[in-house]
């Protein structure tokens, strides 16, 4: 049972795959973990809900992937779709680590299937979640609960107290009440800002007014903005995840 008066080892803000993977990893290392998900339970999981597959490097075919996909080929593909706009250090790190993800997710109860009809070109490179993104999330949430991770829904974080680079506390809002939540470590995994059209305009200009957002309305970049305002260092390319997402869905 979540207890907002206690100090957890790790506070995870967000409820998508990044948040759940971080929460499960921390809990498996023995940490006490609280997850604060801003969305209601039915809509939990942010844009992860909409995903079907993820791209991962692997040395040989698996039960569901038709052949090898080397780290070098993955990096070349990334350079191609981003037109060279990528942070090589982060990209190579993510690509290298992606080799472990398939097995690790399987250990957390996530199941995979061969690529769907009509997406045959992805059958070698992309691992498809059996049942889609929501099924993957359900498996991760089930594992998190079984491990004793405390989870609160409908509880967006609306402020962060970070001083001299040190996280002190977060303000969580439940209905009309706000609570100060303390933890030794903060994992900010609250997604991007795709449903925040005003912020999107900073990158896409007035054209963003006509965007039809196919994503969850619960990611408005609040935690991202709070972190940046607190002096957190920005890395990577702001809209790059879009390019990867589009590539992953292309036939
Ligand atoms: C339609 C669609 C299809 C896609 N398909 C694919 C695909 O097949 N393969 C692929 O690799 N990528 C795909 N993507 C991209 C992918 O969804 C994202 O890259 C991924 O979900 C990011 O994961 P995340 O955990 O960082 O964020 P998210 O999954 O977006 O999760 C963010 C979480 O933070 C929570 N949150 C937000 N604000 C707060 C707050 N203030 N306090 C507390 N919680 C908060 C949200 O409720 C949510 O639970 C797709 C995207 C879309 C929109």
Give a list of the ligands. flavin-adenine dinucleotide
Amino-to-carboxy terminus distance:
44 Å
CATH architecture grouping: 3-Layer(bba) Sandwich
Alpha-beta classification: alpha/beta
Query: pLDDT average, as an integer?
Result: 91
- Detail the poorly predicted runs: 240-251
Query: Could you name the CATH class?
Result: Alpha Beta
Can you put this structure into words, describing what you see?
The protein has one domain: FAD/NAD(P)-binding domain (3-Layer(bba) Sandwich). It has a six-stranded mixed β-sheet with strand order 6-2-1-9-8-7. The chain has a three-stranded antiparallel β-sheet with strand order 3-5-4. The termini are far apart. The chain has helices spanning 17-28, 71-82, 88-107, 132-146, 197-204, 222-229, 240-249; strands at 8-13, 33-36, 53-55, 112-113, 126-129, 150-152, 157-163, 166-174, 177-188. Helix 1 runs parallel beside helix 4 (132-146) and helix 2 (71-82) crosses helix 3 (88-107). Residues 240-251 have low confidence and may be disordered. It is 34% helix and 20% strand. It has 251 residues and is α/β, with parallel strands linked by helices. Flavin-adenine dinucleotide binds next to helix 1, strand 3, helix 6 and helix 7.
């Amino acid at each position: 049972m979540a207890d907002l008066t206690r100090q957890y080892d790790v506070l995870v803000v967000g409820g998508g795959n990044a948040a759940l993977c971080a929460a499960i990893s921390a809990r498996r290392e023995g940490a006490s973990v609280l997850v604060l998900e801003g969305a209601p339970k039915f809509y939990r999981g942010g844009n992860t809900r909409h995903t079907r597959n993820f791209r991962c490097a692997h040395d040989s075919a698996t039960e569901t992937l038709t052949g090898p996909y080397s780290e070098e080929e993955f990096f070349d593909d990334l350079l191609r779709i981003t037109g060279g706009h990528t942070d090589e250090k982060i990209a190579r790190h993510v690509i290298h680590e992606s080799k472990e993800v398939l097995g690790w997710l399987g250990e957390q109860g996530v199941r995979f299937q061969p690529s769907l009809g009509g997406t045959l070109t992805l059958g070698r490179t992309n691992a498809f979640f059996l049942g889609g993104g929501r099924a993957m999330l359900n498996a991760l949430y089930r594992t998190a609960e079984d491990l004793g991770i405390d989870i609160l829904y409908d509880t967006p974080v609306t402020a962060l107290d970070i001083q001299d680079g040190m996280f002190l506390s977060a303000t969580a809002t439940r209905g009309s009440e706000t609570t100060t939540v303390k933890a030794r470590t903060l994992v900010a995994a609250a997604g991007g800002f795709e449903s925040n059209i005003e912020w999107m305009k900073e990158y896409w200009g007035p054209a963003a007014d006509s965007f039809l957002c196919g994503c969850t309305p619960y990611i408005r970049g609040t935690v991202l903005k709070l972190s940046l305002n607190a002096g957190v260092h920005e890395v990577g390319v702001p809209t790059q995840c879009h390019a990867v997402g589009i590539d992953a869905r292309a036939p």
